[in-house]
Structure formats: C-alpha cells, structure tokens
C-alpha cells in the first residue's frame, strides 16, 4: 500500500472506508469485516495527573475526528501490568493495544511469545518510518519487521535540586564520576540526603547500578556484558561497579531506601528532602506538580565518562488477535501525528517521537534535554530491557544482596555469570 499524505481529515474515516481500504492490513480482528461502531481497548500504565489529562485529551481528539471508534483505556501499576500481559498471552483476554517497553528483555519477550503483531503493512500504509525519530524507530525494528509504534523515547539523567546544591555550597555541576561522589559527600556533610531511590521496585535502584557498570567498564565492555557474550565474573570493572553501588547504598542514599517505593522516593525529592535522583524526561512535570518549584529543578547527565546517554523506549503494541486492528492502527496514526503529539504535550516525555515536532517552549527543562540528547555519543539502555525476565530477576537479586550486605561486591559478578552460564 502507498503511504498516505497526512491530513486532519484523514482521521475522520468512516467504518465503511476502513472496511474497504484497510482489510489487507488487518492482523486477524473483525472490525473491518463487520463495520459499525468499534471499540479499541488499550492497556497502559497507571498515569500521574498530568499524564492522565494529556492521555484523555489525545483520546478525546481522536474520538472527535473518528466518531465511529471508541478508545477504552485500562490502567495498571507497572508490575501488575507486566503480570496481566503475561497471564493473558495466548488467550482472548488480550487487549487490542498495550503499552510496553522496548528491548529484548521486555518487549522482545512478548514478541517471542506471539503477543505482538508485525505492523509492517501498517507502517507502509501510514508512512510512520518517515515520521519517527531514528532513536524511536529503532525500538520498533529491533525484532525484525515492525513491532509496536513508539509512544515515547525516554532519556534519563540526574535530576537535582538547585536550592539544595546551593545550600551545600556546590557551585559547579559534576562532569566526572569523582565530581559526582564529591558532590554527594558535600551534600551529606551539609545534612542533606544526596540521592533518593525506592528499593521495593528493583528497577528504580537498577538505574544507579546500570550507570555504574557504564562508568566503571566503559561503553564497549558494558555492551559486551549486557548485550553480548561478556563474562561478568572475569571483569574487574564489575567488582568496581558493585563496590561503588555498596558505597552509595551505605553513604549517600535515603535512609531506609530498600523499604520504600519509587513513589515514596519521589515525594522526598519533590519536598526538598533529597537533592538528586535518576529519572527520565517525563519526571519534570511530575516534580513541578508535586510541589518542587520549577526554578529549583535541574538536570545533568550521569557522568559516566563514555559520552553516552541513558534511556529506553516505550511503544504501543498491537496484539495478533486484536478485535479492532484497523481502528487501532488509525488511533496509532493519530497518536504519532503532530496533532496527536500536541495533545500529549510534555506529560510523558520532553522530546517527541515525531521528528517534525519541536519541544514545547514551556516544557520543563526542554532546552536542557535537547542539549543532553544532542551531545550524546550513543545510548546505553536500562538492563531490564537488555535481559530476559529471568535474567533481570537474578540481576536484581544480586543488586539487592550487595546493598543489604548479604553478598560481597567481589563475588557479585561471578555469581551473576554462574547463573547466566546455567540458564542461557
């Protein structure tokens, strides 16, 4: 099929036009065959207030332009969302669309399990590959064909409270890892909690460990360890990274961090009780909504020394047994259009997945994110996207064992490699 020229009027297609024009692109549902009113069910993550407002605006704009299609949204917390999709795999309980992460360990797991439909025909139909940024598109093409349509391309960095840095006498942002440790010590000496995390959700503290692996091992060795055949037990840098993790846990993270959630940790940052955290570009509006004055909010790249930025992609995936696949594709097309991206604004990310959409002038830290992304010399990805679910679980177990003192950092790499050798 030839790519369509994007026009607002295109979104007002009737069910009859969908039936005639998109049947060949259907993944197996019956919306095109039956016509009439259609419902597209979307499973997504629990949304903060600003995110829910933006999502509702996107849905309302789409439904106004497509009066025959209704979007039904179901929200779940992160772990419940993962569990629901795994449990529904292979059944008729799956939705039409689901929001999920990219990477072989998360999105790839569901692709392998047959929970995601190849969208090549829809990409050809709508010309999405020509509209998406290269980084966002790479998340959809990494499994062969096209799986999912990018929802956000997230970049992560260190958020910091400018007022607390000033209170501690920190006048320059860290540009090396040694600078970062020195700043943490300076904050601690001033009676300020340097960095906050919630340890009950393992992926939160994992952001620190991932960044320490990148810092201590360098880009090439880190990639061999996370996505190649590297030996975690043979690299001294792995011991160095786990040693640093242990030090951060003992000296610089919020007391009791292992017993609180990421949401509780966020409240510490919002309320000025902690100076730093590692979060993504969606976090700025949330921090402002949470009560942190925008003028006190700043970001800088975790100073790994490799020049790479940290981040991940999220996509909306179509299920093979979707009941309304063609209507779902119409919604995906609206979502990535300039009109749809305007509805989403900066509630989920500061930088659009559509390459023609400029950041909003009033986006919190929008210019700072552009500078970080523009200066990046590549990307290192959250390891729960690099690893399989089982491997991620072991990675987290070892991470937590080091933080609780149950495992010597010198033994952490060898123990992880032993598990990999036995299970891969």
SSE topology sketch:
Elements: H1 15-21, H2 31-34, E1 38-45, H3 49-65, E2 69-76, H4 78-88, E3 97-101, H5 103-112, H6 120-126, H7 128-131, H8 134-141, E4 149-161, H9 162-167, H10 177-189, E5 193-195, H11 202-227, H12 236-251, H13 262-270, E6 274-280, H14 283-289, E7 297-300, E8 309-318, H15 325-336, H16 338-344, H17 366-375, E9 379-381, H18 383-386, H19 389-403, H20 409-423
Parallel strand pairs: 1-2, 1-3, 5-6, 8-9
Antiparallel strand pairs: 3-8, 4-6, 4-7, 4-8
Helix pairs in contact: 3-16, 11-12, 12-20, 15-16, 19-20
Keywords: Transport
Family: Belongs to the bacterial solute-binding protein 1 family.
Organism: Cellulomonas hominis
What does this structure look like?
With 424 residues, this protein is α/β, with parallel strands linked by helices. It is 49% helix and 14% strand. The chain has 20 helices and nine strands. The protein has helices spanning 15-21, 31-34, 49-65, 78-88, 103-112, 120-126, 128-131, 134-141, 162-167, 177-189, 202-227, 236-251, 262-270, 283-289, 325-336, 338-344, 366-375, 383-386, 389-403, 409-423; strands spanning 38-45, 69-76, 97-101, 149-161, 193-195, 274-280, 297-300, 309-318, 379-381. Strands 1, 2, 3, 4, 5, 6, 7, 8 and 9 form a nine-stranded mixed beta sheet that branches. The longest helix has 26 residues, at 202-227. It is globular and about 65 Å long.
């Amino acid at each position: 099929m030839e790519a369509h020229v994007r026009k607002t009027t295109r979104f007002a297609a009737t069910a009859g036009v969908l039936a005639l024009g998109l049947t060949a692109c259907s993944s197996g549902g019956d919306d095109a065959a039956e016509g009439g009113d259609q419902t597209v069910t979307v499973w997504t993550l629990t949304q903060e207030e600003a995110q829910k407002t933006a999502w509702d605006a996107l849905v309302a704009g789409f439904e106004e332009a497509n009066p025959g299609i209704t979007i039904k949204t179901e929200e779940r917390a992160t772990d419940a969302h993962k569990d629901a999709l795994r449990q529904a795999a292979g059944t008729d309980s799956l939705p039409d669309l689901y929001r999920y992460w990219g990477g072989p360990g998360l999105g790839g797991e569901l692709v392998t399990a047959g929970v995601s439909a190849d969208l090549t025909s829809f990409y050809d139909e709508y010309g999405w590959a020509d509209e998406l940024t290269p980084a966002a598109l790479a998340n959809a093409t990494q499994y062969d064909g096209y799986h999912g349509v990018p929802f956000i391309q997230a970049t992560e960095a260190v958020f910091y409270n400018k007022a607390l840095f000033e209170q501690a006498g920190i006048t320059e942002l860290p540009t090396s890892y040694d600078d970062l440790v020195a700043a943490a010590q300076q904050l601690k000496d001033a009676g300020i909690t340097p960095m906050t995390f919630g340890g009950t959700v393992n992926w939160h503290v994992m952001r620190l460990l991932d960044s320490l692996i990148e810092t201590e091992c360098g880009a090439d060795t880190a990639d061999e360890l996370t996505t190649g055949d590297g030996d975690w037990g043979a690299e001294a840098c792995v011991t160095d990274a786990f040693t640093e993790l242990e030090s951060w846990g003992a000296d610089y993270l919020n007391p009791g961090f292992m017993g609180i959630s990421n949401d509780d940790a966020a409240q510490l940052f919002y309320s000025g009780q902690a100076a730093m955290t590692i979060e993504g570009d969606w976090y700025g509006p949330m921090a402002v909504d949470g009560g942190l004055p925008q003028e006190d909010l700043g970001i800088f790249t975790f100073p790994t020394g490799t020049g790479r930025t940290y981040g991940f992609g999220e996509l909306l995936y179509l299920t093979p047994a979707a009941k309304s696949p063609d209507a779902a594709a119409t919604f995906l097309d609206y979502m990535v259009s300039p009109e749809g991206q305007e509805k989403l604004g900066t509630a989920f990310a500061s930088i659009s997945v559509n390459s023609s959409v400029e950041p909003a002038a009033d986006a919190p830290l929008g210019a700072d994110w552009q500078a970080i992304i523009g200066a990046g010399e590549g990307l290192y990805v959250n390891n729960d996207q690099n690893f399989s679910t089982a491997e991620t679980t072991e990675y987290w177990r070892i991470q937590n064992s080091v933080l609780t003192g149950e495992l010597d950092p010198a033994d952490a790499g060898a123990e992880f490699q032993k598990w990999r050798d036995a299970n891969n």
